[in-house]
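Structure ticket #2291
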Amino acid sequence: MFGNNLDTADLEPVLDAAMAAGLRLWDTAQVYGGGSSEQILGRLASRYPRDELILSTEFTPQIAPGSQNSVRDLLEGSLENLHTDSVDIYWIHNPSDVERWTPFLVELVQTGKVGRIGVSNHNLEQLQRAQEILAPSGVRITAVQNHYSLLYRSSEDAGIVEYCAQEGIDFFAYMVLEQGALSGKYDAEHPMPADSQRGRTYNPILPKLTPVLAELSAISQDHQATVPQVAMAWAITKGTIPIIGVTKAEQVNDAAQAAALELSPTEMSRLEDVAAASGAQTRGGWEAPMV
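Resolution: structure written out below.
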C-alpha cells in the first residue's frame, strides 16, 4: 500500500530483532495486502512459542462477506492466516456501523478466540456507544487505536486520550512518525519519492515541517538519540502506545530505545508549540474528524 514490496525473507530479521528487544506486540489486519500481511506474520511468528507474542488483527467492515456472522467468519480467516487458534487483541477497524458490528464481539471473547476487544478510528461518542452495547454481557473495550502524532492530536482534542486514561483503556497511536515525515529522513530538500502515495501526501507539507524537524533534531542531539526516537518518546510521554511500521531491523532499535527516552515538560512544550505553529494537516482520507 505504501510502496513497499516485502516478503517473509525480508521481514524475518525485523521480527527476530524486535523479539530480542522485548517488543512482542504485532499489529496487522486481514485487509492489508489481501491477507498477505497476516500470512507473512503467521509464518514468522510460528517460529516462536505462541505465548511469547501478542498478536493483534482487525475486522474491517468494508470487506465483510455478508454472511450471518461476518465478524466471526473474518476472524476465522485471520486465525488461519496467523497459524493460531486465538488472537490477543481483535479490533473493529472503523466505525462504519457501530450498532451492527459491535454485538458480534461478545461471542468471540466468550469462546476464547479473542483475548481483548479494541476499536480503531472511532470518535468518543462511537467509542462510548460501543461500550454501552457490550456492557450487558460483561465484555468491555480495553484498547483504542487511532491516528495520533505530534502533528495530529485530534484524539487528544476530542477527549479520547483522557477518556481512555480514566477508563483503563490502552490508547495505541498509529502513524506516530507520519509515514516517515517525522523520521528525519525526509525534508523540503529531500522529499519522499514523488510517485508514491506518501510522496503525494507529505511532500507538499514538508516545507511547513522544517521548524518541527529542526526542534526534533535539536532535542535528539541533547539526548544522544535519533529523531524517530524523540517523536516516539513524545507519544509515550503522552500516555499512548506507539504502533510503528518497521521494514528494517535497525528501525526496531529506535522503537526499543524510545521507550527509555525521557522528555522534560519543557521539551514536550517546545515540540507541541512548534508543531501547532506549522499548521500542517495530516488527517488521512479514510479518517472522519474526531471533533
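Closing remark: Strands lie at 25-27, 54-59, 87-92, 114-120, 141-147, 170-174, 241-243.
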